Amino acid sequence: MPAKLISGKEIAQQIREELKQEVEDLKTKHNVVPGLVTILVGENPASVSYVTAKQKTAHGLGFNSIQDTQPEDLSEADLLALVEKYNNDPAIHGILVQLPLPKHVNETKVLYAIDPDKDVDGFHPVNVGKLMIGEAVFLPCTPAGIQQMLIRSGVETSGAEVCVVGRSNIVGKPIANIMIQKQEGANSTVTLCHTRTKNMKEHTLRADILIVAAGVPKAVTADMVKDGAVVIDVGVNRIGKTESGKAILCGDVDFEPIKEKASMITPVPGGVGPMTITMLMLNTVKAAKLANGLL
Predict the structure, then answer these.
(1) Which of 96, 132, 254, 257 is most buried as measured by Cβ atoms within 10 A of its Cβ?
(2) Which entry of 115, 121, 252, 254 is annotated as an active-site residue?
(3) Is residue 158 in some structural domain?
């Protein structure tokens, strides 16, 4: 029997409806409007598309949302000054600097300059450290979205064998840390695999929950997946174009044969992708509450 599809699109919509109500309550009961600024340096087409989607979602939820677009040649010092301006603005609760930045700007220095209480991406070392010790306020958005997909799909995580393929700072490492916490939707036994893992198949075949963020098209094949496993595919790879010029996308797992073995699986597109922006919005609402003593 083919696997049940876990629709990130549907789960993201559920969470956005909940957030819309939460934002309304913050406005009417506490006179608080969540504020988000997205800072874009230059006009990278992919980055423009990402921040446009973030702004559209934020406006739809009733946020005070600002798009601050700066020229490609903005100096590092001026960008740091801009971040500091928003750090000191009480109407802004979340600051997002869209990556990648131009080569003359040190991305790490800029991300570290964001006030950890406004770091709605969850990338600041303070927030990474809080995640590590189980005291996170802001979880990185894609891993947080993965956890919500598991919880809202009724997947039992407590005591489950979880295998994560990929060790990036954005997905692999944080989702591994999230899943080992002594918390609801976690309490798992986690194995983290990467390019130097010997006999990866040995690890993936043990997994009740397999989370793949390898960045390689169809890196995980059907013979690497246990019957009845839950498979979360984080990858989005462009592998060609249709005759009309539309991009052909695939994930990091070989979807068609694996869906015949798994109990649940995320599609690409429409799986993990829609969750990321939604979790950014959730973090911004949390930041607004934190700033107003409501968290």
Answers:
(1) 96
(2) 121
(3) yes
